[in-house]
From TrEMBL:
Residues 198-283 form the CAAX prenyl protease 2/Lysostaphin resistance protein A-like domain. Pfam families: Rce1-like (PF02517). This is CPBP family intramembrane metalloprotease. GO terms for biological process: CAAX-box protein maturation; proteolysis.
Amino acid sequence: MTNKIQQKLTIISYNNQYNFSLLSITIVNKEKKLGVSDLETEILAQTHPGAQVETPKKLLAKTGNKDWLLLVLVQAFAFVLQFVLGLLIGLCYALQHKKPDMLSLQNTLSNPAITMLPTFAAELITFMIARKLLKQKIGDHFRKPVVSSKFLSAGCIVALGASCLGSLLVSVLQMLLSPTGFHFNMPVLLTTSDSNLIILGILNVCVFAPILEELLFRGFLLKSLLPYGSAFAIISSAVLFGVMHGNLMQAIPTTLLGLVLAYIRVRANSIIPTIFIHSANNILFVVFTLLPQSDTTEIISAVLFIVLIAAATVLFIINRKKIWLAKGHSEAEEMPAKKKAAAFYFQSVCFYVLAALFIFNTISLSIAKG
């Protein structure tokens, strides 16, 4: 191998430490990850006949398999933990009551404040697996943000506005589909009068969810996709975030929120600000949930939604020229968007499993109300 090629490989290997490389090559008994061009791939194949070369498209497909698998694991672990928790609560209830009230027990087991616990436990288990599977360190996602407080303040308003816009789109979609008999039955949160369960539900939604979900989606999953371009990573991580919520009604606002949070995370190089913004969004949702239902509260909610959407729109228009993402020139980043989508989404069995569950849950919620 010439000195020129050796020099290129040294530079590429150095770039790999910063997740810019995308080609896996095994030479003799040494394994390295090198982001090489087509020409360099051909030279390496000729100079090292035993080398195993994987194109960026194949590596993206592998990344997609891992990312979608992690979402399946969240669902699977949540299902198992929910079953175990139900057995434990049912057993405790039976021991405390000689004549258990089955309706009361059913209401307790179906309360979102309780059902959320297995989901968060499942996310905790899953991101511990993700740490090993994606070979990432948790501390790497909690760095000091490299953006100004002005940027984060504007980002928070845009994120809240995006979430409100998503909720508005769901309402509009429901109005358009209602004549056909299709109704959206949004999952209800904090439907209990038990103060302990309300506190637990608030902690789940406003504290645990932002930390765990940001670490998993804007942390592990987004970082695994950054070598393929920031824009692709932002969009795909937002799609993953929306799909994880399991139905169309929740996926629309969470996907829009996920887009803004992912952009902020990429610019800030940290999930610390996105955790606080995510928490602020959930706090706003909880406040509206706990307010007594009346014409006054509905008017206040509508006005606040409109103000946030308008403010987010104005900020976006004013700062649209300042919106930028670092662009690389690697073969992976310059891969056509259609090829990226085909490799990441449509070559993963887990994607089809989650898509089927997503459609089933959306239809089930519609039937439940209809």
